[in-house]
Amino acid sequence: MTLEAGPETVTTRDAQSTVGTVGTVEAPRRGRWIDVWDPEDATFWAGKGRAIARRNLWPSIFAEFLGFSVWQLWSIVVVSMPKAGFGYDTNQLFWLVALPSLVGATLRLPYTFAVPRFGGRNWTIFSALLLLIPTAGISYFMTRPDTPFWLMALVAATAGVGGGNFASSMTNISFFYPEKEKGFALGINAAGGNLGVAVVQLVVPIVIVAGAGLSLNRAGLMWLPLIVLAAFWAWKVMANLSVANSSFRTSIAAAKRPHTWVISFLYIGTFGSFIGFGAAFPLLIKTTFPDITPAHFAFLGALVGSVARPFGGKLSDRVGGAWITVCSFVVMGLGILAAIVSLKSGSFAAFLISFLVLFVASGAANGSTYRMIPAVFRLTTPDDPGRARREAAACIGIASAVGAYGGFLVPRGFAMSTSHFGSLIPALYVFCGFYVLCLAVTYFCYLRKGGPLSQERV
């Protein structure tokens, strides 16, 4: 079967047939897989690869944006729950914030496997439609203040499906781009998703109070048509790549690499901080500065962190991800110390600025740490570029899963610090110490003089 439609051609096969049928098409068509894909070939990339990669990037960003929005819905909803008649205490509210991150982190590994198993386009459609479950749950249960905590916690946990989207989206996009553009492409893809945290914290408070009274169920209803739109867009323009063939065996091979776990550890400090602080920030403002309205400021942290992420990837393409990661940990440590000083002085302005610095540094470090992954695997597997790319993609899934547990640990750390010490300061000291450790690990593994990769731009 041959399909012709213009100057740009790619080799495809019919997804419904068992034998590949070669044809030519202008762009990825629904139900088709791209069988031949070599972004490292400059002629291929300039002629048609770049355009097709971008066609897949934008729907992926939109679906991931919605995934993050749904994943972090509870971070802003819990702030208004006491006013809506829900009688949960502060510790229970922190649990509702933390549970979606715990589930989302756990789902990221199977979501990574889903791309090679089902295809990036197919999985984007399915994972987008899954977001209807947590949004419908919020729409229903936010009208029932007598809901027992265990049931509300279960509803909150379903929002974790939005967190899984990141791993599958990043894995899929990593196969579309050449090494020299991977840092920026992954940074843009991730930043689009990360922006969902800022948007949900900005828009939801406006929507739930539009008109008279407080309607928390709108926090779920508002996303339903957008979710359907994301699934339709992915169905219409995205493609599945046959070369995206990272398997469970490949992931096992990647898991045996020490660098996989080093980078995963660093990602707890970078992305774990971003998503953890993003989830906890509205409730931190509400509980620490009761006279301040969280909706006026909470979204700023996730916003600046999201914008910083692609710039972290871009700088890493130029000077190396390890250097940007080290510098980011230094800034994050200083931001933590400034936050401690602001809490002791009772200054909200200083507290806000300190956390904005933390968000910017963690956002940039998200991009730089991800940029390190393909570079490390390429340099440690020089004789087999194909294997390096597959294991790097598997590492992305593993690191994104491990790092996302920070979204659970940070809110629970704040809850425990408040419960046992009546202050956030002990938790902040622990986080600062952790950043010092992350800095030391990055320097020792990738930058120290005489190290195995010190002469390379990791």
UniProtKB/TrEMBL annotation:
GO cellular component, one term: membrane
Membrane listed as a keyword: yes
Region (Disordered): 1-21
Keywords per UniProt: Membrane, Transmembrane, Transmembrane helix
Pfam families found in the cross-reference section: MFS_1 (PF07690)
UniProt-listed SUPFAM superfamilies: MFS general substrate transporter (SSF103473)
Keyword Translocase found: no
Membrane topology reported for the UniProt record: Multi-pass membrane protein
Transmembrane segments: 57-81, 93-111, 123-143, 149-167, 188-214, 220-239, 260-285, 291-308, 320-342, 348-370, 391-408, 428-447
Molecular function GO terms recorded: nitrate transmembrane transporter activity
Superkingdom of this protein's organism: Bacteria
PANTHER family referenced in this protein's UniProt entry, alphabetically: HIGH-AFFINITY NITRATE TRANSPORTER 2.3 (PTHR23515)
Family of the protein in this entry: Belongs to the major facilitator superfamily. Nitrate/nitrite porter (TC 2.A.1.8) family.
Protein name as it appears in the record: NNP family nitrate/nitrite transporter-like MFS transporter
Species, as recorded: Kribbella rubisoli
Lineage: Bacteria, Bacillati, Actinomycetota, Actinomycetes, Propionibacteriales
